[in-house]
Design a protein that fits this description.
The protein is of the alpha+beta class. It has 2 domains: 12-128, 2,3-Dihydroxybiphenyl 1,2-Dioxygenase, domain 1, CATH 3.10.180; 143-256, 2,3-Dihydroxybiphenyl 1,2-Dioxygenase, domain 1 (Roll). The chain has 5 helices and 17 strands. It has helices at residues 22-33, 65-68, 85-94, 153-163, 216-225; strands at 12-19, 36-39, 48-52, 55-62, 75-81, 98-106, 110-116, 122-128, 143-150, 167-170, 179-184, 187-194, 206-213, 229-230, 234-236, 239-245, 251-256. Strands 9, 10, 11, 12, 13, 14, 15, 16 and 17 form a 9-stranded mixed β-sheet that branches. Strands 2-3-4-1-5-8-7-6 form an 8-stranded mixed β-sheet, covered by helices on one side. It is globular and about 45 Å long.
């Protein structure tokens, strides 16, 4: 895939992990994807940039009860590119969403913020400056697809088509299943899946990340060997995929081949 060096407003552009045992799970992700971690230092709250070679995959941080509340967070987040982070938050609120974190400038890299949609699914906003987002996509160890798992399909599709510069597209699905893509200039960049019958009780609606792997079955074996858990590898029209949970409890998907 080409380098991700072009801003596409409305498209996912960054992923990051908040983890209750960040140092303990770095070996897990290194074994799975070959990731390295660059600690940005105290001025950035010891936020780590995840890299493969010289290319950024995303970021990660240690959960802090002082700054993040008493309930430990172990989860991946998806950030959407927007021209104005503060305006994006205002638009979110106007359409029934809420502000999770106010807009904050990150040195010369850009401005980030976080919101939640009306169904409770949280997502990030990134207003790019020097950093567009992850450096590559669609290759082993890099993001390849982003998917909202929701019990509130109609509310979710209405919300994201309103707050993002994206149009809804139809994705062929077996009878009884519903899926919409979020398209920009006719190209799909993310999906919304009606997960009413799939989400376990107590699990909120959430944005999931699919990471590309060369071999899904090998990734499943590596995840389990490193202390994670994994569902069975399953074939789909877009590639062979599996659900994986890291040793601290953060959930994501892997898929072989380009998902989008």
């Amino acid at each position: 895939m080409p380098a991700n060096d072009k801003v596409i407003y409305g498209a996912p552009c960054w992923v990051d992990l908040t983890n209750g045992n960040l140092e303990g799970t770095k070996a897990f992700y290194h074994a799975l994807f070959g990731w390295e971690f660059e600690d940005m230092g105290e001025d950035f709250g010891h936020y780590n940039i995840i890299t493969i070679g010289e290319d950024a995959v995303g970021g990660c941080m240690q959960y802090s009860p002082e700054f993040m509340g008493p309930v430990e967070i172990n989860a991946w987040s998806v950030f959407f590119s927007q021209p104005d982070a503060e305006a994006a938050l205002q638009t979110a609120v106007a359409h029934g969403g809420s502000v999770v974190a106010p807009a904050m400038k990150v040195a010369q890299q850009g401005t980030n913020a976080a919101a939640a949609d009306p169904t409770g699914a949280a997502y990030g906003v990134w207003q790019p400056d020097q950093r567009v987002g992850f450096d590559r996509w669609g290759e082993h160890g890099f993001p390849g697809w982003f998917e909202l798992q929701t019990r509130d399909f109609d509310a979710s599709t209405a919300y994201y088509s309103a707050v993002l510069p994206a149009e809804l597209g139809d994705e062929p699905m077996p009878e009884g299943m519903r899926y919409k893509t979020l398209n920009i200039n006719g190209m799909p960049h993310a999906g919304i899946y009606d997960a009413t019958t799939d989400l376990p009780e107590g699990v909120p609606n959430y944005w999931a990340v699919y990471f590309i792997v060369n071999d899904t079955d090998a990734a499943v074996e590596a995840a389990v060997a490193q202390g994670g858990t994994a569902g069975p590898a399953t074939d789909s029209a877009h590639g062979r995929f599996a659900a994986i949970t890291d040793p601290a409890g953060a959930f994501f998907f892997v898929i072989s081949g380009e998902e989008s």
